[in-house]
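Work Package 3 (structural annotation) set out to generate three-dimensional models for the target panel prioritized at the project kickoff. During this period the team completed the workflow that converts sequence records into discrete structure tokens, so that structures can be stored uniformly alongside our sequence database. As a representative example, we reproduce one entry of 428 residues exactly as it appears in the project archive.
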Amino acid sequence: MQLYTKILIGLVGGAVMGGVAQGLQIEWLISMFSSLEPIGTAFINLITMIVIPLVVASLLVGTASLGDLRKLGRIGGKTLAYYMSTTAVAVTIGLGLANVLKPGGSVSEATRDDLAARYGGGALERMNIADNAPGWVETLMGIIPRNPVQAAANMDLLSLIFFTICFGAALTVIRADRRDAVLNFFHGINDASMALINWIMELAPYAVFFLIAAVVSNFGLDLLQGLVMYTGVVALGLLLHAFGTYALVLRFLGRLNPLRFYKRIAAVPLLAFSTSSSNATLPLTIETSKEKIGVSDEVASFVLPLGATINMDGTALYQAVAVMFIAQIYGIDLTLADQLIVVLTATLASVGAAGVPSAGIITLIIVLNSVGMAEHVQAGIALILGVDRILDMLRTSVNVTGDLTCSAFIARTEGETLMPELAARGAD
């Protein structure tokens, strides 16, 4: 049985059991799932523990293996252009759907007040986090780590990626014997990391079961009441982007069969759905790109860690819908100019969104402030906070799918031959 099948069984089983516990109010079962949730958390910690050694080793080897700094710049430029372009497309899709379907028009004043009261405290907490977040200048300067070891300890992937790329580039210009000694060491770390990932992933179906069961049994589907339209618009937008935008990229730019591609990578978005973290999913993302798609180590190790850090298509789309939803609830008419600001701000803000659960809520505050909705931030966040966990799962799945699509696209532009059975021409 394939890994993604096992994970899917665990996910569906957890949702069903959690739904039964919540629907029938079986308190002992709800309590049991809550007490067993640490099993899922332990799995996330296990797979997260391997992120730093894997990212450093694979990215260093990949960068140094490029051999030519011009090739590094070429791949880096194409990767950034791809990520920024698809993010802008995602935001546009979100705005388009929100303008047509108007999800905010379906929420009554009573529901609005109830949700605001219920989740107001959580909204205030996230506003405080956003207020203490560094500005754009500090964020850009923070990319350059003063201490790479500290950056690794803090899981500051963007800083660590910057240092590793610079170090890998430096290895390309030193004596071959000394360069090879360093690369052999990190090759060993990379291979050991991949072996450890395979061991950890054997636990994935069980961890997913307990994670999903705990979420559903504690919150149930009542979170969707009064927010069905909003949730549906976000979900529709994410599906259109995942199976529309990415499918077009795969077919016409990557020259791959999208359906076969999605089947090959299915375990990755399923795991991302369960963990709500691009970073926690990164080890499996890298392994899948190399083993299932056939992307070279040098491309996968460069594109995917960068994608887990800056490629947040799903997050950006969700932010666009959320801004329009909140504006419609409060009767605020966002002009075309305002919506263009949303496209720009959501695209840039998503780049800085950490690959951790619910980071999108924090960056959403930036987007709301950019269009003059500061006075509605706390109430607006409170309105959508109840369903954020569910939507966070969905948008993380889209994020990692975009990362894998990018790796295939970049590999193809570099003249790599991907898995023959994935080729669009002659495929079933």
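Residues 60 and 164 are 6 Å apart (CA to CA).
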